[in-house]
Amino acid sequence: MSYESPHASSSQPQRRPPYRSQYQPPQDPDFLLPWQRSAAAAPPRWPSPPVTPVPAPGHHGDLRRLRAAYRVLRRGATLTALGFFTLFLLLSGFAPGLMTRPLGSGLTIGLALGLCQLPVTLLAIALYERTARRAVDPLAAELRRTGAAR
Question: Where is the sequence biased in composition, kind Low complexity (predicted)?
């Protein structure tokens, strides 16, 4: 007994159409395939509110003064602490005779300069705080006060 498909009406085997031809996109011109992009949206019909230009923050005079004061603050503290340390390193590398001279009771100039690192760092911190209180903080407070009033 041979098995025959109930759908096979002829002796030739039925062929399936290729995969690409199975999918036919709709004939609607507005239909988009997944890889196609839609057209750009039309601009709104109502007029947009007028935009008042706001000056960039970096061009405001008070902010420039605050930035300059903060720059002086940073440079003063950095040059105090790092300048002393750089001087100590340069003297250690290029003037070992000077750094090994005794000051008295077993203390050399190099060791004394090394021990002065902590007081010089504390001096840089004090300079930073004093300059901030006298120059930077009043400018920042004035900007906060005028900014809150607007």
Answer: 9-25, 34-43
